Structure formats: C-alpha cells, structure tokens
Amino acid sequence: MKPLAARISAGETLLADGALGSLLMERGLAPGAPPETFCLERPEVLADIVRQYNAAGAEVFQANTFGASSLKLARHNLADRAGEIYCRAIEIVREAVGSDGYVWASVGPTGRLLRPYGDTESTEVYSSFLEQARALVSAGPDIIAVETMTDLAEACLAVKAVREASRDIFLVATMTFESRKRGFFTVMGNTVGQCARELLEAGADLVGTNCGNGIEKMVAIAGELRAATDRPLVIRPNAGLPELRAGRTVYPETPDFMAARLPDLLDLGLAIIGGCCGTTPAHTRAFRTALDRHDRA
Amino acid sequence: MQLLEQLAAALREGEDERTAELTRAAVAAGIAPRDILDSGLVAGMNVVGSQFRDGDIFLPEVLLAARAMYAGLAILKPLLVKDNIPSLGRVVIGTVQGDLHDIGKNLVGIMLRGAGFDVIDLGNDVAPERFVDTALKENCGAIGLSALLTTTMPGMKRVVELLQQRNARQQVKVVIGGAPVTPEYCREIGADGYAFDAAAAVDKVRELLSK
C-alpha cells in the first residue's frame, strides 16, 4: 500500500468511513456512556463496523479513540486504561482491514472550557493532549485527526501536542461550525478562515470540517476553507441534523441526497471525504460511486 | 439612573470586577436592590441574550457576562433577602440523564435567579427520579429540563411520566429546551412549555407559575 501522504500529494481524494458513534448507539451504547469501552469489552462490534465500511469502499478507517483523553476518561474512571484503549482501538481496525486501508486515530475535545471562559487551565488541557498523542503515536496509526473541535484555542493545543509527540505523523485538524446570520462560525466565534490559518500554523498538515452540518452547508464551509488555504481539504458531513421521531433518532439526509451533492465538494479539491454523525455504510457506498465517477470525468 | 446603565454596560462587556463595583455603588447610592437587579443586571443580560440569538456575539461573551451577573447577584442577594422580597417561586433545573452538556442550562439558571426565582440546579446527567424527588421534596413549582442530544431527550418524557405516576402533574410544571428540542416534541410528551433560549425559559416559567 502506497503511503497516504504520497497519494494525497499526487492529488487523489481518499474515501474515509462514516459515523461510528451513532452506529454504536444502535448496537447498545447507552447515552452518556463512553464509546471507548467497546475497545475493551466488545471489539467484535467495532471490527464488524470497520468491515462493513471496507466492503462499502472506504479506505480510511477511524479507530475508536474520539473521547479517549485522560481528562474525559477520568469522568468514567477509565483514565488509567487510556494507553490500552488506544492500542486496542488501532489493532481492531488493522486486524479488520489488513492492508486494505489506512487507520486514523481520532482526538476529540476534552469537554472542558478553557480559561477565562471556563475553569480549566490550558496547560492542563495541553498535557492531557500530549499524553494522549504520545500513546496514540506509539500505537502506530497512519493519520491522527484532531476533530469535532468547537474551540480553536483547544484545537490548536491538540495540534501542537500531536506535533510535539511526533514531527512526522500525518496530522489533520477539522473544526465544527455553526450557521449564524452573518455566516459560519465555531460556537466560540472563530471564523472558518481563521481556523484554517491558525491550525496550519500550529502544525496541521491538512485542515477541514466535520460534524454539525449536512452536505449543503459543508459545500459552503469548504468554499470558505478553500479561500484560506491551497491545501486539499478534509470534509466529513453529517447526514443532516438529528431529529427525534417517535422516540428514534433520525438523520434526514439519504445516501442519494448526499452523493448527488458530492461533486460540488470534490470540485473544491479534497484530500479526504468521509461521513460524520448519521452516515452509514450505505452512504459510504454512494460516496464511492460518486467519487469514482468524478475521478473519471 | 445613569449608574444602572453603566452597570448594565459593564455586565454586557463581561467585566465582573467592574460589575461588582458598580453594584456596590448603586447600593451605596440608595437605589432599591430590586431596581438594581432589574434595570442593571437583568437589563444587561437581556441584551446579551438577544445579541447572542442574533449571532452578533458568541459563547465567550455570554460566559463572561454570566460571570459578571454572578458577581453582581452575590452582592444583591443578601439585600433582597433582607428586604423580604418574596421569591417568585422555586424551580429545579438540570440536564437530563446521559447528557453532559451544561452551558445552556447554566444560563437558564442565571436568568431565572436574576428574574427572582429560587433555583435548585442539579447539574448534568440527572436521573428522572432525582428531578421529581427534588421537585416534590423542595416544593418546586416547575422543573426545567435541558438536552443537547436526541438520544437523551427521552429522559424528558420520563420526567413527565413520573410526575403523572406520583399524581403531581398539576402541581409541577415542566419546561424543556436545548438544541434538538422542538415545540412539537414538547406537545408529544405532554410537557407544559418549550423554551427556545434562556430568556424564553424565564418567560415560560413566569407564565406557568403565575397561573
């Protein structure tokens, strides 16, 4: 398998998998429970999800490490098992796809608010990220993805921590934006362009956006990212925003709906396209078809 | 009255020390604590709320304003108690079970306190039984429920059902809110009110408790 960075520099767009958390919930993950316990207790469920995405045509697969910072695991008394969770999470994906794919290890937000807005010191968040990054790097993923970040300051701490842990690891950073009257911003008020510039400066190889929006808004956000950087983008839309219908969580955007709008995103120049909350292997399959057609055109 | 306008402005700017200072100055100038609260702190917070809703300001500004509000409230609270200003009622609030988000719920708590309600904040990840037990034991007129995830929203329904089982559905009103929550969901589960944001939550609780 060719190194991922070489394929991206050659202008290829790689297809990443779709949602993990929402599929785990369908398979019995209780609301509020840490998804990382699946690495230790139900690895077969994770492997099964990876195989389904592989069969659907994905080639980049996320390891189940999104919430595995020691700060966040501490809430569930799992902080001392963080290293074990990372290794298992990455092994599970490698075993399931063999040499068919790249593994990306996810680094999500700590769930703390930094001073002066909250009560957490940035040094505390940085050392939590650094510890997580060192353990992740030694578990050997192909990519580390700092993702679903809503505070640019926290995202930059994560990026710098990963860079301190490894100068060479392929590092992407994606933020979650909200649509407001005056355009797209993070919850903390960071603009799309500001995020792109500061994350690259902090040491990310690629930047982009994931979560929080369906595909149409992602096209608009990707346009703003494109104006801020020449590098290919990483975009992972939700299947729309979740609604509760008759007691069930439903994501409104179908595979066909999303795939029909994929060319607009691809035209902007992507390194990685994948799915976030609510997307399924069926979405991945539709993306694969649209991506192959776009590549041929 | 200029003093109260300055106070409202300091709160809007999120300057907690200046807010405390101006609150003390207003007290020293002999302005009634209730007026300092309504025309100073709450007036400022209302502007912050509507600017946030309009997308002119973001979470950091709101969080700093909330902290300034607390600084002012801490000075006024003993005076309001001493003046024997009756509480508008008691409300228990929290984020439902399985949900760890608390920023929106905290803002509702601040706004309710500012409006003159006694607030019991149970925090986040709160079991339905705890909401109902607390409401009954502490004689609360309303329960305020927050959820940021569709997967935790059913916790709201369980609170309503539990109140029914305890024959307390009439005496305790239920107000719900949070990003994925809708007026339709409120009707579906038989809650008493839906609030789009913190200011609306206060209006809704006031309306329901004055009935």
How would you portray this structure in words?
The complex is a heterodimer of chains A (297) and B (211). Chain A has a single domain, classed as Homocysteine-binding-like domain (TIM Barrel), CATH 3.20.20. Chain A contains 12 helices and 12 strands. In chain A, the strands form 3 sheets. An 8-stranded parallel beta sheet of chain A has the order 1-12-9-8-5-4-3-2. A two-stranded antiparallel sheet of chain A has the order 6-7. In chain A, α8 runs parallel beside α9 and α11 packs parallel to α12. With 211 residues, chain B is α/β, with parallel strands linked by helices. A 5-stranded parallel beta sheet of chain B has the order 2-1-3-4-5, sandwiched between helices. The longest helix of chain B is centred in the middle third of the chain and has 24 residues. Chain B is globular and about 50 Å long. The model of chain B has no long low-confidence stretch (mean pLDDT 92). At the A-B interface, loops of A face α4 of B.
The most extensive interface between chains reads:
A-B, 25 and 25 residues
For the largest beta-sheet of chain A, the strand count, sense and barrel status come to:
8 strands, parallel
- Decide which structural class fits the backbone of chain B: alpha/beta
Q: Give the CATH superfamily of chain A.
A: Homocysteine-binding-like domain
Instruction: Please mark out the parts of chain A with pLDDT under 50 across 5 or more consecutive residues, or reply none.
Output: none
Query: Which range does the strand content of chain B fall in?
Result: 5-15%
Number of domains of chain A: 1
**Spatial extent as radius of gyration of chain B:** 17 Å
Class computed from helices, strands and strand pairing of chain A: alpha/beta
Oligomeric state: heterodimer
State the low-pLDDT regions of chain B, or none: none
CATH architectural category of chain A:
Alpha-Beta Barrel
What's the CATH topology label of the largest domain in chain B? Answer: Rossmann fold
Strand content of chain A is: 15-25%
CATH superfamily of the largest domain in chain B: Cobalamin-binding domain
CATH class label of the largest domain in chain B: Alpha Beta
Mean model confidence by pLDDT of chain A: 93
CATH architectural group of the largest domain in chain B = 3-Layer(aba) Sandwich
